[in-house]
TrEMBL record:
Gene: cca
Known partners and oligomeric status: Monomer. Can also form homodimers and oligomers.
Additional information: A single active site specifically recognizes both ATP and CTP and is responsible for their addition.
Protein name, as recorded: Multifunctional CCA protein
Pfam families referenced in this protein's UniProt entry, alphabetically: HD, PolyA_pol, PolyA_pol_RNAbd
CDD domains assigned: HDc (cd00077), NT_ClassII-CCAase (cd05398)
Known catalytic reactions: a tRNA precursor + 2 CTP + ATP = a tRNA with a 3' CCA end + 3 diphosphate; a tRNA with a 3' CCA end + 2 CTP + ATP = a tRNA with a 3' CCACCA end + 3 diphosphate
Length: 409
């Protein structure tokens, strides 16, 4: 599309950053300088922005936003007054962005406009805020942590980290709504190194505000015979990164994040064994999931993993009756897909320990074989032959026998 001479269009943000890094460009956002909403309508663009003028290209459906500035009017990430007009310059638009590496633009002729040192920070692998306006939006704390998870070899600039700490101390972060917190945390969990998300949030003090149950795990010791890493928080970071390395879905990664919350609640007298932490963690997992409005599939799997991962680790010592009891407790017969996710999360927990990376998690295969054996029982035939009122007991006995026959004791 050819724009009038008085209108300049630039590709901005992540598309420019990723191209300079040699990464695939997923989405292309544009800033339009010198245009009015009426200009965009005449060119066939469709308005979609609720809070500021954003338009969809009539053919590509890519987003084009009018150059704009913002003024802080209230606490929180929504407390802004947006001003968009043809007089707003590209540099004024870019200075309101979060990080220097996201505050670059590319002109139609390929020139890079970089008024705030984004290319310098890309080369130095630094996540640095653009201006003091960063402190006006608490959501940017989570965005920095998420970018640290996406680019794990990038460090947060000391002055940016200190600014984030000041935002936490001021209480600005308390204005974040659960939906946006979950959106950023879930996206961070799906990055290549989700441990960095947690580390950065912890470094600036935000983890204690947003996920105090997770923050409480750091410094809590575990049995070194089972956990050479000892610290429960360190174990959590390793489990998250193992889950990411396997390409596991969000429900499995969320379960990995919260599977050991009970260890932050067990009294010191039970350290380092943490006996009973599985049951103790249920309320904490439910509390986090409710507070952040976590989707049902993530919440239900997390509750199952938190409660039963200890039994899964002991599956190689369970007899047929014990294996069937675990299958029933995890609802494996009605929800075999979720049971498979449960096994993946338990395997992540197993491998997320130093020296266990290559040790097979044979318990998962034993549980899979037990489920296959139990499901081979013809429940209808068993029910038809059972006495009145004895059907559940008969099916249970048949399944136990099938597991016993299929697996070594």
């Amino acid at each position: 599309m050819r724009f009038p001479a008085h209108i300049q269009v630039y590709v901005v943000g992540g598309a420019v950053r990723d191209r300079l890094l040699g990464l695939p460009v997923q989405d292309r956002d544009h800033v339009v300088v010198g245009a009015t909403p009426e200009d965009m309508a005449r060119l066939g663009f469709r308005p979609v922005g609720r809070d500021f003028p954003v338009f969809l290209h009539p053919e590509t459906q890519e987003e084009y936003a009018l150059a704009r500035t913002e003024r802080k009017t209230a606490r929180g990430y929504k407390g802004f007054q947006v001003y968009a007009s043809p007089e707003v310059t590209l540099e004024q638009d870019l200075i309101r962005r979060d990080l220097t590496i996201n505050a670059m633009a590319e002109a139609e002729d390929g020139r890079i406009i970089d008024p705030y040192g984004g290319q310098r920070d890309l080369a130095a692998k630094v996540l640095r805020h653009v201006s003091a306006a960063f402190a006006e939006d608490p959501l940017r704390i989570l965005r920095v942590a998420r970018f640290a998870a996406r680019f794990p070899d990038f460090g947060v600039a000391p002055e940016t980290l200190e600014l984030m700490r000041a935002m936490v101390r001021s209480g600005e972060i308390d204005a974040l709504v659960p939906e946006r917190v979950w959106q950023e945390i879930s996206r961070g969990l799906m990055e290549g190194r989700p441990s960095r998300l947690i580390e950065v949030l912890r470094d600036c003090g935000a983890l204690a505000k947003l996920l105090p149950e997770v923050d409480a795990l750091f410094g809590v010791p575990q049995d070194p015979a089972k956990h050479p890493e000892i610290d429960t928080g360190v174990h959590l970071l390793r489990v998250l990164d193992w889950a990411a390395a396997q390409g596991h879905e969000l429900p499995v990664r969320y379960a990995a994040l919260v599977h050991d919350l009970g260890k932050g609640l067990t009294p010191r007298s039970r350290w380092p064994d943490h006996n009973g932490h599985e049951a103790a963690g249920i309320a904490a997992v439910r509390g986090v999931s409710t507070r952040l409005k976590v989707p049902t599939d993530c919440k239900e799997l997390a509750l199952t993993v938190a409660r039963w991962h200890g039994e899964a680790h002991r599956a190689d010592r369970l007899d047929a009756a014990g294996l069937l009891a675990l299958l029933e407790a995890t609802d494996a017969f009605r929800r075999p897909e979720r049971f498979e996710q449960f096994l993946l999360a338990c395997a992540d927990d197993h491998h997320g320990r130093p020296g266990y990376e290559t040790r097979p998690f044979s318990q998962a295969e034993r549980l899979r074989q037990a489920l296959t054996a139990a499901r081979s029982v013809d429940a209808g035939a068993v029910a038809a032959a059972a006495p009145a009122g004895g059907i559940p007991k008969a099916i249970h006995a048949a399944r136990t026998a099938a597991i016993a026959a299929a697996l070594p004791s």
